[in-house]
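Problem 12. The chain below contains 267 residues. Write out its predicted structure in token notation.
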Amino acid sequence: MLVNITIDPIIVQLGPLQLGWHGIFSMLALVAGVWVGLWRAERLGLPADPIMNGVGWAIAGGVVGARLFHVLDHLPYYSEHPSEIVAIWQGGIAVYGGFVGGVIAGAIATRAQGLPVWPALDAGAAGMLVGQAVGRLGCLVNGDAWGGPTGCPCGVVYWHEHALVPPELIGVPTHPYPLYEIVGVAIVLGLVWLAVRRGRRPGTAFLLATVGYAALRFSLTFVRQEPIVALGLQEAQLVALLTGGVALVLLALRALRPESRLAGRGA
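Solution.
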């Protein structure tokens, strides 16, 4: 069954400023992710005020990282339209950039406030996955995370002139990549929840979520249409290999170390 999207991604426009469905769902994703993260932080016994400060820094780092990765992934376009580099309200963010920027900024802020980093990252892991699933609904509406053409009966077809798919894909059935990722993220979230519900050591939830999302993104990106960067792979796939590989190494190293030593280092 083909899904036909005829809705205008832009709700209202005032001069150069736009309010679109992508922005609405991005805000909802932020609210949902923060709420879940704070709920998990409370369950883990982390103090609310320092965690909120860390969340603020993580959000700022995530926004900067998400836009930076997106611009780098579409550098030829933004080289010709430099004024649009900061126009994040028009859509165009890279999830992995948000992940990298948010984790780095959040970890630095958490450490600066004297909180244990690994439990804080665990609290944020579920929030990041939930926020990612909600945010992809905005991508589904405006078409900025389009899949390649498909002959499958479960494709999505964009018809509106403001859709962010390439012009040649208007009216063409494409892979519903955002829906693929929403389902995949839900599965990763469920598997991580099952893996850590028996009191695993701090950091396990975050690292498992990182590995799970890396595997998901690497595989699903084959149905995307993004520039090839190196080794026949797209930017997201290379980042997935890097982040997933680092997380796997950290999981192995932490599994080999006595839990008492990890606790002694504020893990």
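Discussion. The chain has one domain: 3-264. Students who got a different answer should revisit the alignment rule from Section 12.3.
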